[in-house]
């Protein structure tokens, strides 16, 4: 069990207890990457997916459910624990694609854990956190992008079932996945007519149309899905009918903070790799770091990483304290994505030809960084949302 200072009177954040707990979690996560991930990551990149055995190994270490309640099979931590785990894994060499594949439960499960029936929790949440199942979240549709309220996949009630028809695209872990937490339209137009259904792989009419090849996130399998007269039991409805948009929206803050951690996490790792390279690589009889222009680039990379990290940590602190941080999460994601874009670019530049080679770690981070300003809400969409929330738009 992890300590929650908001509910445990004996847990004072000012004491060393929570700090020691977070440090132990970081050490466990880092060692897991060094032992279970780093030696195999390029092979998984080439294969296009992460093995299911890695999910079971991560579950045995208590990593998959760190921020889920013990009542649903998690470790009882909060967002701060999740951030500490992610930071440590990136620092040890995990890629953004690896993290998206291994922790897809972070977007597939929260709605079920918070609003699903006890049966849905037992059938999908607990086994996924135990590494036995892999889930995915089916929201994005062809031509739909970030417009969640415009979802066209329909679910028509027919007795004890819904009949689902439509398509989803860019769905993470959908090739390997055992179920899809699917956004469907059960009511009228707009956000008020959406619901969430858990659709099991193997249900007649649900097919993986194709696995999608991507610029980055190579080890994270991504797919297009089609739903043709898929009969889903009414008992697989998550929460209330037509309340799906609100269930999705309440998880946006955590998802966007997670992507911010992805961004500054791979930026920090790229900076560390580049600083070491610049100390070791000699040109014209001296190490690269002896050149002022190189040192100044490293300092600028450091500045961008630290600004993104510090701001994201503050947003996390406020979220854990119960504050509404919808706009701030949008800004944290953008700040971190800007840092990742700039830092990973300079990392490749300073590595020179070695950085351009497929299989080098900075090349992987450079490619992976490009999805982060798009996933979880494109930067342009989130900036406009922040403008409205901050009172800058009519």
Q: Using the coordinates shown, work out and report the CATH topology of the largest domain.
A: Butyryl-CoA Dehydrogenase, subunit A, domain 3
Rg, alpha carbons: 21 Å
Mean pLDDT over the residues = 94
Computed structural class: alpha+beta
Summarize the helix and strand pattern as letters.
HHHHHHHHEEEEEEEEHHEEHHHHH
Helix content: 40-55%
Taking pLDDT < 50 over at least 5 consecutive residues as the criterion, the unreliable ranges are none
Termini, distance in Å? 46 Å
At the first level of CATH, the class of the largest domain is Mainly Alpha
Commentary on this structure:
The structure is a single chain. The protein has 3 domains: 88 residues, Acyl-CoA dehydrogenase/oxidase, N-terminal domain (Butyryl-Coa Dehydrogenase, subunit A, domain 1); 108 residues, Butyryl-CoA Dehydrogenase, subunit A, domain 2; 139 residues, Butyryl-CoA Dehydrogenase, subunit A, domain 3 (Up-down Bundle), CATH 1.20.140. 49% of the residues lie in helices and 15% in strands. The chain is globular, with a radius of gyration of 21 Å. The mean pLDDT is 94. A hairpin with an 8-residue loop joins strand 4 and strand 5. By secondary structure, the protein is α+β, with helices and mostly antiparallel strands. The strands form 3 sheets. The chain has a 4-stranded mixed beta sheet. Strands 2-3-7-6 form a 4-stranded antiparallel beta sheet, with no helix packed on it. Strands 9-10 form a two-stranded antiparallel ribbon. The longest helix has 29 residues. It holds the Pfam family Acyl-CoA_dh_N.
